[in-house]
Amino acid sequence: MQTTFIVAILVLGFLVTFQIAKASEYVAILRGEERSRKQSNKINGFLLLVFLIAGLIGVYYCNEQLKGKILGAPASDHGVLVDRMLYITLALTFIVFVITQVALFWFSYKYQESDNRKAYYYPHNNKLEVIWTVIPAITLTVLVGFGIFYWFKITGEAPKDAMQVEIVGSQFKWEYRYPGADKVLGKKYFKEISDARNNPLGQLWDDPANHDDIYVSGEPMHLVVNKPVKLVIGAKDVIHDVGLAHFRMKMDAVPGTPTTMWFTPTKTTADMKKETKNPDFVYEISCDQMCGKGHWSMRGEIIVETQEEFDAWLAKKDPQYAKIVPAKKMEPAKDSTTAPAVLKDSVIAQVIK
Amino acid sequence: MSEALSVHPEIVTTHDVHHDEHGGGHHKETFISKYIFSMDHKTIGKQFLITGIIWAIIGGLFSVLFRLQLGYPDQSFPILETFFGHWAKGGQIQPEFYYALVTMHGTVLVFFVLTAGLSGTFANILIPLQIGARDMASPMLNMLSYWFFFLASVIMLSSLFIQTGPASGGWTIYPPLSALGQASDGSKLGMDLWLVSMAMFIVSSLLGGLNYISTILNMRTKGMSMTRMPLTIWAMFFTAVLGVLSFPVLLSGAILLLFDRNLGTSFFLSDIVVNGEVLPNEGGSAILFQHLFWFLGHPEVYIILLPAMGMVSEIMSVNSRKPIFGYMAMLGSLFAIAILAFLVWAHHMFVTGLNPFLGSIFVLLTLLIAVPSAIKVFNWLTTLWRGNIRFTPAMLFAIGFVSLFISGGLTGIFLGNSTIDIHLHDTMFVVAHFHIVMGVASFFGMFAGVYHWFPKMFGRYLNNTLGYIHFWVTMVGAYLIFWPMHYEGLAGMPRRYLDKSGWVSFNQFGDLDKMITVVSIIVFAVQLMFVFNFFYSIFKGRKVTTQNPWGANTLEWTTPIRPGHGNWVGEIPEVHRWPYDYGKDGRDFIPQTEPIGANESKH
Known about the structure:
Chain A is an alpha+beta fold and 353 residues long. Helix content of chain A is 46%, strand content 16%.
C-alpha cells in the first residue's frame, strides 16, 4: 500500500514536471525563442554562481560534520608518515581545488552571453601554457619525492629485533601463529592443512622450528607496544587483505605468495580507550579485498599491550605440536639451526615438491 | 601528411560515384536493412546509444538496490522479495545478491555503458560526419561490431537469470575467487557467462576500434589535415588506439581464467585449500591475473574518459563562441595521457606485495599523468575566460564535467601516491574517487554529447526545461553522494561492506549512508526523466528548422537536417581551416568549409 502510494506520488510529480516543461516550450515559442533563451541563460548563469558559493559552504559544513568521525591520531610509527603525507597532499590539492573551481564557475557566470560583449579571439599563448605545465610538474615532483621517501621507509626491511607473527586469512576468518622461543616460524605446506589432523595451517612437523610454534585462533592477536612487529601474511583459499586502519597499514594475503609488512604499534589498547574516550575501543583487522559473500564480516582484533602482559598471555598457550603428540610433550627447540641438516633438507625438498 | 592529402581527391571521387548509384534507386532500403542490420554509421551509433541507455537503467537500478541495503541495513523491503525471491529473503538483500549487484553494476557501467554506449555511440556518429566521410572504412565490420556487442549483452543479461546467479566477485574478477565455484556461488556458471560475454565484447570493441582508426587515418575529406580535425575526433582516435592495444590483453587473461576454471590448468592458482578441500594446483600466480587485468583496466578508464574530454572541448568552444584555448596543447596532452595510460597499471597493486622499488616507479609515472590533466583543465578554464557563454544543457554538462574532473582528478593524487594508498587502498575513498572522475564525469560528457548532437541525430531538440532540471539535480546529487563518501574512506572503511554494524571502527556513518541512499534514488529518478525526454523527443520534440542550430564550424552541420546514408547530397565539402574560428575578425563563427579570406588575420 505504502509502496503504491510512493509510486503514485512519483508518477504524479513526474507528470507535473513534464507538463510544465512542455508548456514552457510553447511559451518560449510564443514570446520569441531568442528572448526566452536569453532569460534562461541568465538564470543558469546565476545558478552556477549560487552552486559555487553553496558548494564551498557545503565543503566546509561537510568537513565540520565529519572530521571528528575519521580516525584520530595514528597508532603506529608508519601511520605518522602516512598521515603526514596525506596532510601535505591535502593542503596542496585543496588550494588547487579552490582556485580552479572558483575560476570555473566565476568565469562561467561573469562571461555569460551578453549583447554588449564580443568573445575574445584567443587561440593560444605559449608562455601561459609553459607556465601551467611547469608549475604542476614541480609540485608533483615534491609530492613524488616525499611519497617515495616515506614509501621506502615503510616498505623497507623490518628491524632485526622485530617480533614475527603469522596471519592467515581464509573465508571468513583470521588465524595467527607465533614463532615460540626459537623466534622462527616453522615451514608449511598447504597439502598438510587439515582440521581433522589438528593442523589448520599445514605446518610440517619434520621441521623442529615448528615444534614450539603457537597457533592462535578465535581470539585477538596480541602485540607488544613500541616493539616492531613483522607480519607474515598468507591466505588459504582466495585473496584477502590485512587492513589495519588505526595503524594505517594494509597488505594483501595471497594464496601461494606469502607477503610481509612491518610496523611498530605506539599505543596500547588501553591508551586508545582513553584517547578516543570509547571504552569499547578495539584495534580491528578488516579484510579489504573482496573475498566472497562473508567479506563484509571478516573481522579480527588486535590487543596491543605491555611486554609483561604479552608474556603472561603467551605463557598460557601450548604449541600446536603438543596436540599432535600429547603423550610426549616436546621440548621447544632452542634454535632451528640446531636441527640436523638432513632433516632440514628433507623439509625443503618437501616444500619444493 | 601531405602525401595523404594528395591522394584524397581520388578517394572522394570514387565515393561520390558510388553514392550516385545509390541515389539512382538500385538500392531499396527495407525496414531490416535500415534500422536493424544497418550499415549506416549514424544508425549504428543510435543502436549503441539506445542499447547503452537500456544498460544504464539496469546498472543504475542495481546501484539503487544496493544503496538501499547500505542506507537501511536493518530495514525490510517486502517488495524486493516479490521481485527477487530468495535473493531478497524476508525483503532483505542477501549477501550473495548484494555482491552480484555490485559486480554487475560495475561491469555493466564500465564496459557496456561507458565504453560501448559512449565511444560506440559518438565515434560512430561523429567520425564520418566531422571528418567528411560518407561512412566508416568498413560499414560491414561496423555493423558486426554492434551485433557482437548485442550478443555480449544477451549473454551477460542471461547470466542474471540462472540459479546460481551472475558473477559476484567484483568487476575486477580477481582469481582465485572468480576461479573457484566452491568459494562463491557467483563463480559457478555465472562467471563462465561473464567471461564469454566479455570475450564477445572485446571482439566488438576491436572491430569498432580498428574501423575508427582506419576511417580517421584514410577517409578525411580534402583539406582536412590531421591538425584541422576537431578535438572530438582526436579523442576518439586515441580512445580507439588504447582499446585496440589493451583489450586483447584482457582477452588473454579471460581465456587463461576460463582454462583454469574448466580445463584444470594453474595459471592463476596455487596452494589452495577451499572449504577444507585441498586443490592440486601449484605454481600459478594469482597476481599475474591482476597484471593482465589492469594492463587493460587502467587504459580502460581513459577509454571512458577521453571521448568525454573531446566532446567537452568541442561543446565548450562552440558555446563560449571562442576557440578552444591551446589546440596543440590539448592534442599533446591527449597524446601524453594515451601513452602514460599504458605505464601506470600497477598503481592498482601497491599493496599486493609488489616489489617496493617497482612500486616507486609506478608512483612517479602515475603522478606524471596529473601534468597533462592539469594542462587540459587550465585550457578549458581559459576557453571560458572572456567568452560569450551560452548555457545550453550541453554546455552546462560540459562545465559540470570540468568541475567533476578537477575534484576527482585531485583525489587521484592521493591514491597514486603509494604511501597514502596504503591507508586508502580498497576503501570508500577509492569508490568516491573513481565514481566522480570516471563515472559521473564521463556520464556528464556523454550527456553533453547527447544534448548537443541530438538535433543532428534525430532532427529534433530535447526539451530544454527537462534538460536543465536534469543537469542541476544530477550535479548537486553527484556531489552530495560522492563528496562525503571520501570521509568514510579516510576513516579506513573498506569498500564492498554491506553492513558495518558489527565493526567498532566503521559504524559511525549511519546517517551519512542514509542521506547518500536517498539522494541516489532521487538522482536515479531524474535519469529516468532524461530517458523519457530522450524517447519522447525523438518523436515529438521541437523540430530543427535550421541546418546549423548552434552556429558551429564543424562539418556535421553542413549536412542536411536529416542526413541520409552517405551524409552529404552531392560532393563532400572541402575544408579550408581549423574548426575553432569563433569570434575571429569580428565574425561570430567561420565554418571550416569557408576559404581563408584575403585580409584574414592569422592565429
